[in-house]
Amino acid sequence: MDMEKIVSLCKRRGFLFQSSEIYGGLNGFWDYGPLGVELKRNVKEAWWKDMVTSHDDLNTLTGAPQPFQMTGLDCAIIMHPQVWKCSGHYDLFHDWMQTCRQCKKLVRADHVWEMLEEAEWVRSFAESIEATDWDDLLKFNSLRSSQWAQRKGKKLAPGLALVRNPDVTLSWLAEDLRSNPEMRLDLPTLLRYLATEQKAETGLQTPCPHCGGDLTEPREFNLMFKTIVGALGSAEDAAFLRPETAQGIFVNFKNVVDSSRVRVPFGIAQIGKSFRNEITPRHFTFRSREFEQMEIEFFCHPNESAAWYRYWRDRRYEWYLKLGLARDRLQLREHHAEELAHYSVGTADIEYAFPFLPPGEFGELEGVAHRADFDLRSHSEGKLVKKDGALVVELGPDGKPKYKGSGKNLAYMDEMTKERYLPHVIEPSSGADRATLAFLCEAYREDTAPDENGKPTERTLLALHPRLAPIKAAVFPLVKKDGMPEIAQKLYLRLKKDFNVFYDDSGAVGRRYRRQDEVGTPYCFTIDGQTLQDQTVTIRDRDSLEQKRVHLDAAADEVRKRLEA
Ligand code: GAP
To answer: Which 3 state secondary structure label does DSSP give 245?
Structure first.
């Protein structure tokens, strides 16, 4: 899989465009084009259908004959600022960032070395000293280094100390190597020498992945977007765009229980936009500043929470497999204790081997977290912190709760057992954009298929699961005469009632098939000479290339049958 080819297809065929492209784009924001919007809607609809409306999994823990209940919510993006204080996001939802002293760009501290590995200037420097890979860079060569600095370096890494002042920079390195023959010049050390002009004063500097300049020490940076509610614009009017949809569910827990007669265990699902002011948005839509989440908060009895955690982790993993992700590119990874979020007592990530990652590396598609009663308790009592292994309300300098909760009793009363308790929560939290990207990457293929003359020709194919395909079927009249277009139009209008279909009568039929293969259309109907005789049409399958004749009246049922298979 070649990421550049996938990105290019997405733009060429209208899946994804950079936001505000005609003004040069805005980093971290993306627009879904005519086909992209259908694909992403299908991903979200498959999730909603499978997890909420059509879900029929029984409560396997109790063996109850009924499926457990799943319901939905659609909450506001801007919520009361106290929500984020009690949830912990106000104090804790930050990344560490560094600023380049030369180009002033910001870089996420934990992304610096990964970005350096991908940086064009590092690759060019490696080539100049004739290193063939990252480890080979250690073959440091002083003369070649200063030649590179004076030529390519000026353009590619104008901020690098080696480029700004090669003699001084190299002299520090040469001196240290001379005075310490034992010195091990590993790669990070070499790059840090190249970024250092005044070693005696500053120590070794970390190079900026963008221009080679030197980076400041890491500083905390809160990822929530701030906004102002109302016209006055005073400090008290500050609010935040939600960084996750989950909190809307927690603060509505009581409303849902009181209004819909759900019984624990049950889940509340929500799909919606979330916003994070990511320091280094990258890898296409993988890390964006505006994205959509598909989250479930599943409320259960504390005694059953460990079992429900395992249930959701495994069920969500299977969902991706069912919709086409390959098992060898999908993994479930349990977090180590030190990786856990402040609220989590257990988390597993569902990860996919995205093609933009180095071989063997996986990126997060979804997190399944055991959040215990952290959220309901903090929205009731005030922001919680861990003290001596237990969660307690965090106190301010005056000894009062640092951030007061709502004061509402969010406990659940089980009318059957007469037990009152705060349910535990299992949270499968997925990204709609990441899932869409993973399905796109998985589906991209290049193969050969016979054209209409039987000659093998190359084709690009999106082998998307038919449920996800933006267009379900295309309709072609073989030629634009003999009444074929009229029959094709009629079939097109009939199918359009139930499915997103496409009509195409231009160019050779082989080329029309190729155009549909490239956007993942699973079925193509062709009206030909035989249709005029017996009212049958061919239906061609995108993956097997098999063609079969069906009666015009049975075409819609045939598509439905195949989509449900
Ligand atoms: N409520 C828990 C929560 O938000 P998270 O791991 O921060 O957990 C859940 O986010 C999912 O949201 C991720 O697994 C990912 O799919 C998606 N996501 C998070 N940040 C994202 C970003 N900057 N761009 C695109 N998707 C993102």
So the answer is: coil
